[in-house]
Amino acid sequence: MKVTVRLFATLKDFFPKNQKKVLVELEAGSTVNEVVEYFGIPQTTPLIIKVNGRSGSKSTVLKDGDRVGIFPPVGGG
Amino acid sequence: MKIYRVNMTEGKVTTEDVKQDYVALGGRGLTSQIIADEVDPTCNPIGAKNKLVIAPGLLSGTNAPSSGRLSVGTKSPLTGTIKESNAGGTAAQKLAKLNVKAIVVEGKPEDNKFYTMTVNKDGIKLEDVSDNLLGKGNYEVMEKVQEELGEDVCVMSIGQAGEYKLQSASIAVSDPEGRPTRHCGRGGTGAVMGSKGLKTIVIDDTDAPGVSIVDKDKFKKSARGLAKALLDHPVCGEGLPEYGTSILINILNESGGLPTKNFRTGRFEGADKISGETIADVIKERGGQTAHVCHPGCVMRCSQIYNDKDGNYLTGGFEYETVWGFGANSEIDDIDAIAMMDRICDDIGVDTIEMSTTIAVAMEAGIIEFGDAEGAIDLLKQIGEGTPLGRIIGNGTGFTGKAFGLTRVPVVKNQSIPAYDPRAVKGVAVTYATSTMGADHTAGYAVTANILGIGGDVDPLSKEGQVALSRDLQIATAAVDSTGLCVFAAFAILDNEVALPAVVDMLNAQYGIELVADDVTKLGESILKAERDFNVRAGFDNSDDRLPDFFLEEECSPHNVKFDITDEELDEVYNF
Q1: Which one of B55, B162, B191, B340 has the minimum C-beta count within 10 Å?
Q2: Total domains present in chain B
């Protein structure tokens, strides 16, 4: 299956340069954690995870066509 | 500490001792209490009976980190409700060092002249400046005053919008570089200042006595504790200084809550071009500054200095809501054009949130097309020029919507809804509907638990838990707004159990009192009750605590959600 991944803010360092999103091929039944490992983001990094715009976690199970956005803790207003 | 009373009808200044009831109040707590005690709730906001109260927070002027926020209170010309508008800049710290608890401006000059009020160690004096400052924008006003009195004075001023008494007029407060990038933005406080015949307030703290602290050692220890809690928090210590508040563009877009095209959808195609990441890159490329402070001693440093393509200063204090409103909500993805709009608003002296939502409503009306950056810049310039169309725009979103016969007008109590779609971020929608201030995200920033995972997790799309979340945050925020602490300190307070006791300990050490954490909640509750009571006496009731119909009737993509929290549920907010 394929999922679209976007990494933001400081996590852009783990992303191919000048790319806004990456299509990642994963085995069926994979979780967000596989995405985290795919990009080599250290497990200790605190993350905010959105799957299809909903709040997710590393254990969220993905399906084909999902949109995954991963952020470091952010805030403002 | 003392309270100055400045009567603009007679041009007379009197000094009062702080009465017992006001001793433990500061910032919003004090401005709202004085307005509630002294102003006729049914008065005309730009008439002689309204008052303008200016107060530093309880901790302002001390070494407490991020404690230099200023409160300005009045009856709002925009909403007709009580108003506290909060700003950074250097005013609060200087006033506190001069031992000024509050300045109460009342009456109205009969000669239609404009004055400068100078506050220094000797007191307050008024000077007629109609000839040299009238008609000028905030940038020129601040430069002129600093040329004469030095770069260290703080200047609060109104631009042309305040002179015209437009309902979105702001009061500019100079930042540490002396520029008008910090504003009491919301609610038209600049129109009230203009109605009092005040063009500028100059605060000079040369030889000021400074803030007295009862237990200095205890205070220093607690201040360090709060500074550490702020710096240790990933948002306060890393995200905000590195990217500024526009870091929110991408996460709201990803969450489907970034209002786009006058609140039609929750995602904007051009989001990345206006994101905090892009802005930070542009700033670095052009020799601007990230991690800028809006007042000395802020450890979060979320402000920024933005240069134009040639590397020259263009604007500062360029915030998420401004970028969203002139950006996604107006379908403009040109960050330089958005920065120019921010600059114009700061100069003319209008609220960037109110103006950006008004520009989108003007686009809705067909005055200009969605996405037309040049057209938007022209409309904003017309406010300063005082053209009839400029005056319509400058009176805000609700006024412009009525002038052009529209129903897609995002306001509550006539104040425009900011940068989080009420259907996709339902906690903050409860705050928009029920805040004593009209639609105001800062009054109870439920975006924390809804979107950011701060202070817990509450699903933003479900109605469950939103009323309690908003209520608790509105109470806590009213208290924080009284301390002079930046509302962003709440991120650390919500996540780090050391932070709130540090704040309480500082208050106890400074004033020699014995507050406990529970008293903070009680303070917040009593402020909200005083504000709500003023609004009730002004003629407001539960039926005013509602969102515009289209949020209940139209779905917001990508989640295809409507606002579904019932009227009865909204009315539960004030059950405390």
Answers
A1: B340
A2: 3
